[in-house]
């Protein structure tokens, strides 16, 4: 389909006398047919990056290529958004309420002055693909949430785009529909081999869809890799937090152990750079609580149960080292434990992450 190549791309917005460097000298290639995810905190340049790719913003400097064609150059959109073969889906999947499902899906083709019989066959084909063939005469208010969202996708796909651009596409959906929306976009992206760029602050969106991902911080990619690489080996503590829940614990390094009060976490397999103090990162699902040893876990010391809560099929247990109750550590557990009880904290071997203290 289309390979997107970005070279030294920057976008600076001027707000009075101050300059906002929304996108800061990004170079990246998104291979044809691949889904690339952009994760990052709010206000760090994700939407601006997507709008530059779409041709809705002109670069302050740098170039964008679709295959070998220059589509944007410094201070100029060479090829307009409507000529780029892109489809866009934004946060609100808004449909036109006064138009039937058929007319909603047909709308982009009507705008492009496609002949009527061609419109009819194309709309039917896309409706078939998305399971909407039976509801083409209904109006948006007569649809379920899932059908509305499928209609919005159908409208985005009706012109057979080569590139799909998604900006926080699932954040306005109910948690229940969100899962199926992600699965649907993933399926269509894979089947149609659409070169896809999805940006979101929610790692679950990126992990569900992207083959490859980048974390944008202050307009630059702070890390690029497969979603699993970024989740398992985040380059910084900030990236660790952006990609999922994690305990970040200030520790002293003593003889290859990270020491937090009475807890001693072995750093045997971690590369250290001679720091005396580090931040240890451990995800709650890499921790366990037990009085007896567990295979593939290492016992790091005694902790006291502080709080127990339940949600989404899992118990969240907050524990503290027995010698320092000001330190909180979250543990995911399948069974509850009584507050006040003391037990051992176990860490899955190979899952300990170490970051520099800032
Ligand atoms: P994100 O999508 O990651 O939340 P944005 O790309 O929307 O981030 O914004 C990045 C930065 O650029 C922010 O500081 C934002 O205020 C600024 N910005 C975005 N669009 C404009 C604009 N049209 N004019 C001025 N500043 C803008
Ligand atoms: Mg945004």
From TrEMBL:
GO terms for molecular function: ABC-type ferric iron transporter activity; ABC-type tungstate transporter activity; ATP binding; ATP hydrolysis activity. InterPro entries: AAA+_ATPase (IPR003593), ABC-Glucose_import_ATPase (IPR053598), ABC_transporter-like_ATP-bd (IPR003439), ABC_transpr_FbpC (IPR015853), ABC_transpr_MalK/UgpC-like (IPR047641), GlcV_C (IPR040856), Mo/tungstate-bd_C_term_dom (IPR008995), NA-bd_OB-fold (IPR012340). Keywords: ATP-binding, Cell membrane, Membrane, Molybdenum, Nucleotide-binding, Transport. It catalyses: tungstate(in) + ATP + H2O = tungstate(out) + ADP + phosphate + H(+). It is found in: Cell membrane. GO terms for cellular component: ATP-binding cassette (ABC) transporter complex, substrate-binding subunit-containing. Pfam families: ABC_tran (PF00005), GlcV_C_terminal (PF17847). It comes from the Archaea. Its EC number is 7.3.2.6. The complex is composed of two ATP-binding proteins (WtpC), two transmembrane proteins (WtpB) and a solute-binding protein (WtpA). Part of the ABC transporter complex WtpABC involved in molybdate/tungstate import. Responsible for energy coupling to the transport system. This is Molybdate/tungstate import ATP-binding protein WtpC. It comes from Sulfolobus tengchongensis. The lineage of its organism: Archaea, Thermoproteota, Thermoprotei, Sulfolobales, Sulfolobaceae. The gene is glcV.
């Amino acid at each position: 389909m289309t390979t997107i190549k970005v070279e030294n791309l920057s976008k600076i917005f001027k707000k009075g006398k101050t300059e906002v460097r929304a996108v800061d000298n990004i170079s990246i290639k998104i291979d044809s047919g691949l889904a690339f995810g952009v994760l990052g905190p709010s206000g760090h340049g994700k939407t601006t990056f997507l709008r530059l790719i779409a041709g809705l913003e002109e670069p302050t400097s740098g170039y964008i290529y679709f295959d070998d064609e220059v589509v944007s150059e410094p201070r100029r959109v060479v090829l307009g958004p409507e000529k780029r073969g892109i489809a866009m889906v934004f946060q609100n999947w808004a449909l036109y309420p006064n138009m039937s499902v058929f007319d909603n899906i047909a709308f982009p083709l009507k705008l492009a002055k496609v002949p009527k019989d061609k419109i009819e066959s194309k709309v039917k084909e896309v409706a078939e693909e998305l399971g909407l063939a039976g509801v083409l005469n209904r109006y948006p208010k007569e649809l379920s949430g899932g059908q509305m969202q499928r209609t919005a996708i159908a409208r985005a796909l009706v012109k057979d785009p080569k590139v799909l651009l998604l900006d926080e596409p699932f954040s306005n959906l109910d948690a229940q529909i969100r899962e199926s929306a992600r699965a649907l976009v993933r399926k269509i992206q894979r089947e149609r081999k659409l070169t896809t760029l999805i940006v979101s602050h929610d790692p679950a969106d990126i992990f569900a869809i992207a083959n490859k991902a980048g974390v944008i911080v202050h307009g630059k990619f702070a890390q690029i890799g497969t979603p699993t690489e970024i989740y398992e080996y985040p380059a910084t503590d900030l990236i660790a937090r952006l990609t999922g829940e994690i305990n970040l614990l200030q520790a002293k390094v003593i003889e290859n152990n990270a020491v937090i009060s009475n807890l001693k976490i072995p750093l045997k397999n971690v590369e250290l750079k001679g720091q005396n103090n580090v931040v240890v990162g451990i995800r709650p699902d890499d921790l366990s609580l037990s009085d007896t040893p567990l295979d593939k876990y290492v016992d790091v010391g005694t902790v006291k149960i502080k709080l127990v809560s339940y949600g989404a099929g899992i118990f969240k247990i907050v524990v503290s080292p027995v010698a320092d109750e000001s330190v909180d550590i979250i543990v995911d557990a399948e069974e509850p434990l009584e507050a006040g009880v003391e037990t051992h904290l176990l860490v899955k071997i190979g899952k300990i992450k170490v970051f520099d203290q800032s």
